[in-house]
Amino acid sequence: MSQSEARETAEKAVPGSELQQKGVLVNPRAVCNVCKRLYRDPKILPCLHTFCSDCIGQLEPFSAASLRRGEAEHGRSGEAPEANRTATVTVLCPDCDTEVDIPQSGPAGLSTDHLALDEVFLETLVSDAPLGCDLCGEGAAESRCEVCCVNLCEFCCQAHRRQKRTASHSVQALEELKARGRLCRPVLCSIHPGQELRLFCQPCDLPVCLECAATLHRDHRCCPTHDIIDLHGDRIRELVSMCLRPRLERLEESLQKVETSQKTLQVRVEATANEIRAFARSYASAVEAHCLSLLRRLEELRVQRRNHLHLQRAQLQQALLDVRGSVEFAERLLSCGSDTEILSAKGVTLRRLTGLAESSYDPHPATVAPDDGSSISFLPGEPAGEVEGYPVVGVINSKTVDVSRCTIQGEGLQQGHEGQEGHFILVCRDAAGEQMVRGGEHVLVSIFHKEKKNCKVETTVADNADGTYSVSYTPVEPGSYSVWVCVKAQHVKGSPFVLNVKRKLRHHSGTFHCCSFCSSGGAKEVRCGCPGTMPGGFKGCGHGHKGHPGKPHWSCCGSTVEKSECLPQSVLAAVSPRGHLRTVEL
To answer: Is residue 377 part of a domain?
Structure first.
């Protein structure tokens, strides 16, 4: 019996995935990952993954580009295009997705995975399913021929040993094979049935049997497998131990780190997500609490303004009744009463009417501004402090401008200089005197010359959006001006103001110095704007001469203030009629 026939017989012993269907735990090394059944003629792909020959044959080509690439490569070698088209087929490994080439002969040209066959045979032995005889198919198998790889009943085993061709085969009891835990069987030649591959042809790089070495490989150097195994085995061991095993360890360590990082990342993300959810719940609670607080404050304002309106209404109603009753009585007295009746009621009537006329409570419809709630507004962007430790925004603004409480800041309201920009600030305040926190008020500022009615100064009002308004102006003529500052068409307290504009500032033309000698660059006889001289020549610094102010001063006018206005020429002539020394910085 040939090895292929024996293999087919062994495969028929356990049809398909019968073991899996019966719930028997199957060795994964004996199962194909494509069909999920025990291996049938297992073949090794170039990526060292094993699949059934039929499963490999059913794999679709990776792409047409791979075929064209094979055509181009073979085309350069000078072969015919028809031969090139089927030279190699590229498929994807079902396990690792690696592109692998199938030889021209198909899956049959791939190396057989004998280790997988061993696992399959061992699986059939250790399974609980009863094994029948592979030869007669009637009796229960008790032995196994390791050469033919067939299970034999007792009768067929005796016949197997009596035949001359199979008498030398090694036959082992199935129970003994099961006890070993691993099945070691000889690898037979596919060309010469019954011949074990014991030699290795070095030029062909193939294991061969004795007949192959004597016929097909007679001119080749063939060595026993046990003599050559060390050379090739050591090469494999060297690659594994020196290169791939360390790389494997590094890859495993790196993979473990990545997996650990993934777990750590997931844990951290989940913890952060929980923190975000807790924060959102707490923040939402704080916002809700702030909302309730704002609504309570709004209700308080409503009650407060309502009570104020009720009181104002009651006062107006009472005043209306008093005035209306008195007016009706007086008019009826004058129109219907006799002279005696009028004179009799004159005293009490005049006293009542005089009292009402002199009363301070005399509102005018144009000046009465009932609080209709228009001053109440919600400012969503304004900071509102913290609630339960969380910052919140949004405040209720209920302040209204009290024109009588508004104030002016800055010296630019009282004095200015010709041709120079002046500034002052209007601060709008409420009835309690507190500064408004927002802008938007109608502010009007006008500056007029008191003597020249046609002389008006252009003004600019900038809303600072915090209750203050910056006012700037530039007078073109000196003199006295009137400044009107109005808010909501009403003058603020003190308006109109008086603004005094001085002539253009005169700059110094001399040197700010300590003595006339220093100012003149060392001249012995000089006269300074102090006024002062150094008679008799140089006698020291000259701080103590007659007329010296005793401190640094300007040589042009004698002013002791460095940042000051230079005195006019008329003033200088009055101080020193004969002129003064004018110097510049050396």
So the answer is: no
Contact 455, 449 (CB under 8 A): yes
Tokens of 326: 């008195």
In this prediction, residues 544-566 reach a mean pLDDT of 74
Axis-axis angle for helices 339-357, 245-336 (nearest 10): 160
* Residue 194's CATH number: 3.30.40.10
* Nearest-angstrom CA–CA distance, 91 and 326: 116
Q: What's the pLDDT at 174?
A: 75
Q: What is the DSSP letter of 431?
A: T
CA distance 535 to 238: 114
SS (H, E, C) 290-303: HHHHHHHHHHHHHH
Has residue 313 been placed in a domain?
yes
pLDDT tens digits along 462-503: 999 888 999 999 988 888 999 999 988 888 988 889 999 887
309-316 contact pairs (CB < 8 A, 24+) = 309/370, 309/371, 312/370, 315/361, 316/363
Closest by alpha carbon to 133, among 164, 113, 160, 102? 160
Which residues touch 407 (CB under 8 Å, ≥6 apart)? Answer: 426, 427, 429, 492, 493
User: So what's the pLDDT on residue 4?
Assistant: 47
CA gap 576, 571 in Å, rounded = 9
User: What's the domain range around 137?
Assistant: 3-199
pLDDT in tens, 500-552: 988 777 777 777 777 766 766 666 666 676 666 665 544 445 565 666 777 78
Query: Are residue 436 and residue 307 in the same domain, yes or no?
Result: no
